[in-house]
Amino acid sequence: MNKKRIVTWGAFILGLVILLFGLAKLGAKSSGNITTASSTLLAPVTDSDWFKGSAKAPHTIVEYSDFQCPACASYYPLIKRLTDEYPNEVRVVYRHFPLEELHKNAKPAAIAAEAAGKQGKFFEMHDALFNTQDQWAKDGNPELTFEDLAGSLGMNGKQFKEDVNNPELKKRVEENISQAVQNGIGGTPTLFLDGKLIQTPNSYEELVQLVVGKK
Predict the structure, then answer these.
(1) Alpha carbon of 177 to those of 4, 28, 36, 105, 119: distances in Å?
(2) What is residue 2's predicted lDDT score, i.e. its pLDDT?
(3) What residue stretches are annotated with the Thioredoxin domain (predicted)?
(4) CA 8, CA 80: separation in Å to the nearest integer?
(5) pTM
(6) 95 in Cβ contact with 65 (< 8 Å)
(7) Contact status, residue 156 vs residue 197, Cβ threshold 8 Å
């Protein structure tokens, strides 16, 4: 093999290694990465957290999620079904972790959910955002879609617009992001069950067994 061919193959192999490394890094950012996160939830649940289910439930799931993340949208029906069917057994806490490098509309969506929360409709907007993700995910002006969703949910449109621009709501979202970063979370959805990091179950049956079947 001549020297030119050796150099060519060497460059090809090096490029392949760089490509594979880049893909692995991107994958870690776009989906839950259990190897990098701390195994213990560092920010305890407080009265300021949004949650579904009974506050007295024996088990609590804390979910760090991104409204524009396809994996989160796929997992959302499982979490919703769990809280609908076992409201007394499990409490699910939702925390924002918009991956802004990948999802430019994720943070505005999180703020829109917070604005809905000011009118007592956080989880109604939460559900609507996931159900319509394909409509606004790549929209250059997603705020108009968020306003339409707010209207469809019976909110006061004027108040919603004002609240979306409330710096306190942006601060709340950024506090969730800071918590996630401090916890070493690398992607979404990331779940903690009773304060311990868990591997995201692959099916609803596995989720029920893990949470409700836990003694």
Answers:
(1) 50, 17, 16, 15, 23
(2) 53
(3) 24-170
(4) 53
(5) 0.82
(6) yes
(7) no
